[in-house]
Design brief:
By secondary structure, the chain is an alpha+beta fold. 58% of the residues lie in helices and 23% in strands. The strands form 3 sheets. Strands 3-10-9-8 form a 4-stranded antiparallel β-sheet, with helices on one face.
Length: 302
């Protein structure tokens, strides 16, 4: 640069004799000034760039040192964590081994206890079954004895039934047929309660037994009403009023075991009253009615 200045001064000294410089000289001067300014600016940029590069290099070096320190710290921590993990794993393995041994011992004890409980329950069940079997056997023996007794009782009942049937047949055979007080042939006549039961077993007619005492109002017997007016014990005679179909008829001085007959509406066969017991102020007997009563038919008046 000093050379450029020296040349410039030399040029000015040479051009002094000519006071008015030419355009070429002015252009050269301007170019030299611009060149000089550009060199200065370039040198300044190079200096700034070198400063920035130095600062950047220092920053990078600091970051590298920091990263190296952090890496060392992280590696140390990782090693510590790894060592702690190994210690924990060893402890866990030891605890697991201890737990397995304890669990095996507990399982063995539990199995032994279950075996003892099963044996005890099996023994109790066998004893219970034996007791129940004994009870069932005793009950079976008792049942067999009762069956024998029942069989004996059945034989007795069959014998009694056979005897009763024979007696019933004999009773029915002993019954008599007589004409009633209306001149109609009566059915079999019963002279006591046993013979009434025999007639009821035949099922030919309906039978209603009664004990009729002297009362103010008539008493219902079957489908009719009867009122005792007189009972002559010595002569075995009685007098009653019969109420049927809203009518009354007096049956006077009738004899014991005599069929007292009358008709009701719808009956083709007569109703019969048979008194087989005459007592003081009371008569005992039964009312006999036909099984079938026709609603349209109407017999003779009472």
């Amino acid at each position: 640069m000093n050379e450029y200045l020296h040349q410039d001064e030399h040029l000015h000294e040479e051009e002094k004799p000519s006071r008015k410089p030419s355009l070429a000289v002015i252009g050269l001067i301007v170019a030299l000034v611009v060149l000089f300014a550009g060199n200065i600016y370039s040198m300044w940029q190079v200096r700034e760039l070198r400063g920035q590069m130095a600062a950047y290099q220092e920053t990078v070096s600091g970051d590298m040192a920091t990263m190296r320190e952090m890496s060392e710290v992280s590696t140390g921590r990782a090693l510590q964590d790894l060592e702690a993990l190994r210690t924990s794993l060893a402890e866990a393995q030891e605890k697991a081994s201890t737990a397995v041994g304890r669990a095996k011992s507990d399982a063995q004890k539990h199995a032994e206890k279950l075996a003892q409980d099963i044996a005890r329950r099996q023994q109790a069940l066998q004893e219970q079954v034996a007791t129940e079997f004994t009870q069932v056997r005793e009950a079976a023996d008792q049942t067999t004895a009762r069956i024998s007794e029942v069989s004996t009782d059945v034989d007795k009942v069959e014998t009694e039934i056979t005897a009763t049937k024979a007696e019933l047949d004999q009773t029915i055979a002993d019954l008599k047929r007589v004409n009633g007080d209306m001149g109609v042939m009566s059915g079999l006549i019963a002279t006591n309660a046993q013979e009434v039961s025999a007639l009821r077993e035949l099922g030919d007619r309906n039978y209603y037994e009664f004990q009729l005492a002297k009362t103010k109002d008539p008493q219902r017997v079957g489908e009719i009403q009867l009122k005792l007016k007189k009972a002559d014990v010595k002569r075995s005679k009685y007098t009653v009023d019969v109420f049927a179909d809203d009518k009354r008829i007096e049956k006077k001085d009738k004899t014991a075991n005599e069929p007292v007959q009358f008709y009701v509406a719808g009956a083709r066969q007569p109703y019969e009253i048979v008194v087989y017991g005459v007592e003081k102020g009371k008569i005992v007997g039964y009312l006999s009615t036909p099984k079938v009563v026709l609603t349209q038919a109407r017999g003779p008046k009472l």
